[in-house]
Every structure is written in C-alpha cells, then in structure tokens.
Amino acid sequence: MTNTTLLPDEGLFIGRARTSDRSHPLVVTVRDGTVFDITSSMAPTVRDVCEMPDPAGYVHAAGGEPIGSLDAIAANSFQAARDPEKPSLLSPVDLQAVKASGVTFVVSLLERVIEEQARGSAEKADAIRADIAGLIGHDLSKLKPGSPEAMEIKAKLIQRGAWSQYLEVGIGPDAEIFTKCQPMASVGFGADVGLHPVSTWNNPEPEIAMIAASSGRIVGATLGNDVNLRDVEGRSALLLGKAKDNNASAALGPFIRLFDDSFSIDDLKQATVRLKVEGEDGFSLEGASSMAEISRSPEELVAAAMGPHHQYPDGLALYLGTMFVPSKDRGEKGKGFTHKVGDIVTISSEKFGALVNRVRLSPDCPHWTYGASHLMRDLAKADLI
Fold first, then answer.
1. Assigned domain for 370 exists
2. Do 118 and 205 belong to one domain?
3. The domain that contains 97 carries what CATH number?
4. Same domain, 154 and 186
5. Neighbour-count burial of 53, counting CB atoms closer than 10 A to its CB (0-12 exposed, 13-18 middle, 19+ buried)
6. What are the CA-CA distances from residue 31 to residues 14, 84, 102, 222 (Å)?
7. Torsion-angle region of 336 (φ positive above 0: left; ψ -120 to 50: alpha; else: beta)
8. Sign of the Cα pseudo-torsion (195, 196, 202, 205, in order)
9. Which of 38, 132, 166, 172 is the most buried (most CB within 10 A)?
10. Distance between CA 353 and CA 20 in Å, rounded?
11. Which residues pair with 252 in a beta bridge?
12. What is the DSSP letter of 259?
C-alpha cells in the first residue's frame, strides 16, 4: 500500500480522524507512518491545540494510542470505497472559522476580469484574454497592490472598458476576504468535493490555507481546494456565496503542518503548490502556483481577516488564493476547462503532502450533518469536556 498522502517524513502534523468505536472525531498526529490518537481533556479539539502557546511542542510530547498505519487509513478515506468500520481521515480543522482570500496573485487578476467580461461564458474567454493581455502584457508578477504601477494598469483597463471590482481587490489597497464554509463543514483527504448543479464552467483552486489562533498568531498551514464556479461568480460578484459556499465545496488536508524548528512561515512563502486533474474521459491537466509570487503576504492576509476589527474566538483557517486558473481546452476549442463528475483532483506540495478528492455534484456528496453542537455533545459523553 502506498503513501497516497505523500506526507514528508519530517515535520509535526495534526489532523482529525473518525473511528467506529468513538462517537466523536479524534485529534491525531503521525509518527513514523502510524496515526496516533492524541485526543485528551486538555485538548479535545484541534482548535484547542492551536490555542496553546506551543502547539508543535504539545503534539511532540503528547502520548497517544495508535489507530492504524497512515497508508491504510488514507486508503480507507476515499469516499467511493470507504469502510465505516475502519478509521478514515477528516478535515484537519474543526471549530475554526473557514475563510478565503481571493485575487491575491496579480497574475490571476486577469482571469477574474475575464470571467466578469465574459459574463459566465467560457466561449468568450479566449478572445477577451488575448485582448487584455495585448493591452497590458502578460507578466504582472512583480506588481505590488496599491503601488503607482498598479494604478497605471488599473487606469488602462478602465480606459479599455474593462473596469472590474476585481481590480479593486487585486491591485488596490484592500484584500478580498470571504466565508468559504461554516465551522465543521469542510471536507478532508479522500472526500468527494461538490459542484453546485447549476454550474457548467467551474474549476479547482489549489491553495495553501493558513491556520491562526484566536490571537491572530499563525501556528501552521495545510493544503486546500477552494472549489470555484466561474460561471456563477462571473455573472455577478454578488453571487460569490453561491459560487463558493456549497455542500462539500471546501477541502482541506491531509494534515496541518505546525510551525517548528523544521518548518516556518518563510518555508511556506517559498512553497510550490501543484495541481493535477485526471478525468474519467482520459483528460489530464497539470499546473502549479508559486507562493513566492503572491501579491500580499500571508501575514497581511491574516491581518485583513482578523484583528481589532473582527475576532474569531475559535481561530481561523484562511485560504490564501492561487495564481493558477486552468484554461486548457477540454473538448471543443476555445471553451476552456471545466470539471466533469468523476474527476480526481490532486493538490500537492513538498512540505505538506497531497490532498486528493473526487468531484461530484454537491447534492450527491454526503450531506453535512455533524456540526459544532454534535461535537460538543459527543465530547461531553466521553468526559472530554
């Protein structure tokens, strides 16, 4: 059995798992290829670990009971063949708010403008892309939001008639922060991810998600898929909630990598996030997003989401955005990329491992039925709170 999570040997990882003999989710870590249950009354949730002064130190020193090999548990986490009598992985966050930032890579700004200009039509996107790229060029990687150069680009696009609210968050002073899903609603490694059935133009968004304590201190990070409906958001930015927050539309995992001596936020800033999509029709697509090219730093984005202006007492998971928006034609020339049911999406990065999910329609994914109230009742029954 192979390590489908591609988890690196070094590093301190924390996550969640479900077993048949416990009503509550387990807080787990990985040691030498074995998953250990470290749930305790001191830290019955991942949120509680993240609130500690030294989360990595706590996880390193915590006792625990082995629940199985990582390979076996990961293999049993795939929705299509999951055995409920065996352990499986869950999203690594629990009570944290799940937020996302958008248009954080200036190089992806053009795709957002194109979406809006195309009014949700994939057929028009190629022509608009070529027109705008001819006007301002392709290489916007060094552009700093809010700078004089950024304002000059904005002026050119306005003159072209391509003004967009995306310009304001892409190259203006304020970042876009939105709610991706409710606490306890994200899905993890192996789970199905959902598309709203009204969408015919959609895509995965391979991202890193920061994990912050209630104080705003960033304690670690994980991989994420910010599933996106390009046609819905392209019709109107006011439909962002419908485009972004649907059943099983927020994937995180496989584990949170905590900051310690082997891994810091500086390592994260140099990470490359890779995407692979494999379809049942034989289609394949690969791409990558370099965190070195992010326009706003992770610290800036976390500060935009939380602080004196907005508190999150259970902490925060914050998707950081992506520079890679797939545009490879899938089928008829000029219609670009869109998902098909059954696609396997793999998002990977050397320091984090791999997050693997299968695409389905949201109504066909397991419905979200286990929330914060259920978690509290189950932890109370187990005398953990």
1. yes
2. no
3. 3.90.850.10
4. no
5. exposed
6. 11, 23, 35, 18
7. left
8. negative
9. 166
10. 26
11. 224
12. P
Q: Which two tokens stand for residue 255?
A: 């584990």
Residues 114 and 127 in one domain: yes
pTM of the entire structure?
A: 0.92
Examine residue 49 and state whether it is found in any structural domain, yes or no. Answer: no
Cβ(317)–Cβ(211) below 8 Å: yes
Show the DSSP H helices in the chain as ranges: 46-50, 55-61, 70-75, 106-118, 122-136, 148-159, 165-171, 230-235, 240-244, 265-269, 298-305, 372-381
Give residues with Cβ within 8 angstroms of 242, minimum separation 6. 196, 229, 232
CB 220 within 8 A of CB 385: no
Question: Does some domain include residue 43?
Answer: no
Among residues 124, 83, 359, the alpha carbon closest in space to that of 248 is found at 359
pLDDT tens, 197-253? 999 999 999 999 999 999 999 999 999 999 999 999 989 889 999 999 999 999 999
Has residue 138 got a pLDDT over 60? no
3-class DSSP assignment, residue 181: strand
Question: What are the pLDDT digits (tens) for 261-297?
Answer: 999 999 999 999 999 999 999 999 999 999 998 989 9
Write the DSSP assignment of 144-180 as a string of letters.
PTTSHHHHHHHHHHHHTT---HHHHHHHSSS-EEEEE
Distances (CA, A) of 201 to 81, 204, 285, 343: 28, 11, 16, 14
State the pLDDT at residue 140. 63
List C-alpha distances in Å: 361 to 98, 140, 184, 200, 353.
21, 35, 20, 11, 26
* pLDDT in the model for residue 1: 43
Phi and psi angles of residue 303, each rounded to the nearest 5 degrees, phi first? -65, -30
